[in-house]
User: Which sequence fits this backbone?
């Protein structure tokens, strides 16, 4: 499988109409946690097993990963979890517009592709438009969690989120970076990095006022 895909290529810029929440979740009114760049899906599978009264949506631009995550989900008969294929920068906003007021409670963006080269920075997933879209639809006090093992990348995400002014950063014990994942689950990349004893930089934000739209 290709390591990265170019999200700016014409193919990935075509908007996809994602199935509505009532088609993908059994109890579609439950609070929602979206994981952006869900890859093999293990993080959300762990959470969906632990929290049957929440709905979990994993979004991923590499379709083969979505197919294999869905296979695992079906085997476990999880009806509070769904993996969908899309470029979140193109197709997420429309899906969010269909949610009930106050329903989107958590968004996580974990170890996103770094796209180091200067000419590739535009390919990064965390952009003003994505953060503003999340801000428009997430509930008051809703959580936006980010983490990465690459300091330069996490700082660039922090800059974008801070610039939006819709989120307050939460500091625990005055530490600049949270020292653990707050969600009782870990991503594959997180486990890989921790196994190598390398640092992980984590930040939690909460929505600081009532949503702008709705
Ligand atoms: C480095 S991987 C990390 C995967 C997982 N979050 C983890 O921590 O193990 C980043 C994932 O984000 C996906 N991704 C990158 N850009 C995306 C986009 N615009 N929309 C949806 N998924 C995207 C990639 O295909 C990849 O699977």
Assistant:
């Amino acid at each position: 499988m290709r390591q990265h895909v170019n999200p700016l290529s014409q193919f990935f810029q075509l908007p996809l109409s994602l199935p509505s929440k009532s088609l993908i979740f059994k109890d579609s009114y439950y609070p929602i946690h979206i994981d952006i760049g869900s890859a093999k899906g293990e993080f959300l599978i762990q959470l969906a097993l632990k929290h049957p009264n929440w709905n979990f949506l994993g979004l991923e631009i590499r379709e083969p990963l979505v197919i294999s995550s869905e296979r695992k989900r079906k085997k476990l008969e999880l009806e509070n979890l769904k993996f969908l294929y899309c470029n979140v920068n193109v197709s997420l906003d429309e899906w969010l517009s269909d949610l009930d007021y106050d329903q989107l409670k958590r968004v996580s963006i974990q170890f996103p592709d770094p796209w180091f080269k200067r000419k590739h920075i535009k390919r990064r997933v965390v952009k003003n438009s994505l953060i503003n879209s999340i801000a428009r639809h997430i509930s008051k006090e809703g959580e936006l969690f980010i983490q990465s093992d690459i300091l330069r990348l996490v700082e660039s995400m922090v800059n974008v989120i801070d610039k939006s002014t819709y989120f307050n950063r939460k500091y625990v014990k005055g530490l600049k970076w949270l020292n653990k994942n707050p969600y009782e689950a870990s991503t594959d990349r997180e486990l890989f990095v921790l196994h190598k004893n390398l640092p992980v930089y984590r930040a939690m934000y909460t929505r600081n006022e009532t949503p702008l739209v709705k």
The first helix runs from residue 10 to 13.
